[in-house]
């Protein structure tokens, strides 16, 4: 009954119109309606194909529907998907052991979304401050950086410096101090005996892929160690191969006290996040003090373990480093040619490209790239963020660079 099938199927334009009255307007998506995807490619309702240069903000580091990850999910769906932490599951121990091993830390607390991992770290750092460091009750502070993005919960937007993210959502959670990013002197000045932790992104993704100067992460590590507070690295976007190393902190061989992972940890299939930390830190939690119904569920642990299988080969880190050099060269050429690019920053397969606001907003550039069959996302008005799957081929990357050259010339 092909007629039934066609009348039941709505076009991209119809589906976009249907969303407006029923879906909260907390996003402003590009006008593309994805119906299927594989590897670096997505396909819309009408069968048009697009190269995905956003990769779900790095949740799709291994591309869409990586066969090993989809297999792991399928196999687990036939066994058990959810136990809650009221019981043990046969998947969780192995996942936690291997995640700790990969990161050089001791203990894991599995959650679901990135924001939950950040919230967990805030709670754990405060508890550590009271029980281990001896900060006076309810006086603990956490130092964060200007331009940060750590998620969308009430506590997290309390220390955001983005007006749009905060405005209208007060009253806010106290106990945070904001210092300029990539400024060790300002950081040192903000730390005192109440400081539980310094929470930073090793590279600020949402801010436009801002890469701190060489030595900053080493400086944060030394400073936090010397002043007796925790270094919490939010690697929810920068981690798991994106920058050409397993973690962005690996570029300076720095090990934080607390590492936050999410996005790619769920293989683009299920939300999986984790707080990974030294035993002295996560060890402060006792039964009942924190948790999540879905955190560390068997499906999440199975997919997360399959993600670790991929990372343990080192193949994706190498690809990100090698193809990152291709991306860097391509962007350098485009920037040299003049045109709309005023500056760009790149590390591994991750780049922020600033465009001259006189020649178009980031949104307009994204729409022009969409017309060329390339999906990207603007950030902060005039920056385009590029974060293709780490599985992208050199030919696909060249095609994306050609589209960028055409649109930005
Ligand atoms: C995406 C992101 C988060 C929040 O993750 P969600 O899963 O969207 O809650 C936190 N920190 C960083 C650095 C991120 O990029």
UniProtKB/TrEMBL annotation:
SUPFAM superfamilies per the UniProt record, alphabetical: PLP-dependent transferases
Alphabetical list of Gene3D superfamilies matching this protein: Aspartate Aminotransferase, domain 1 (3.90.1150.10), Type I PLP-dependent aspartate aminotransferase-like (Major domain) (3.40.640.10)
GO molecular function: ornithine aminotransferase activity
InterPro entries xref list: Aminotrans_3, Aminotrans_3_PPA_site, Class-III_PLP-dep_AT, Orn_aminotrans, PyrdxlP-dep_Trfase, PyrdxlP-dep_Trfase_major, PyrdxlP-dep_Trfase_small
Superkingdom of the source species: Bacteria
EC main group: transferase
Pfam assignment, any one: Aminotran_3
Regions crossing the membrane: none
UniProt KW keywords: Aminotransferase, Pyridoxal phosphate, Transferase
Keyword flag Transferase: yes
Pathway annotation: Amino-acid biosynthesis; L-proline biosynthesis; L-glutamate 5-semialdehyde from L-ornithine: step 1/1
Cofactor needs: pyridoxal 5'-phosphate
EC number(s) stated in the UniProt entry for this protein: 2.6.1.13
Family per similarity comment: Belongs to the class-III pyridoxal-phosphate-dependent aminotransferase family.
Name used for this protein in its record: ornithine aminotransferase
Organism: Streptomyces katrae
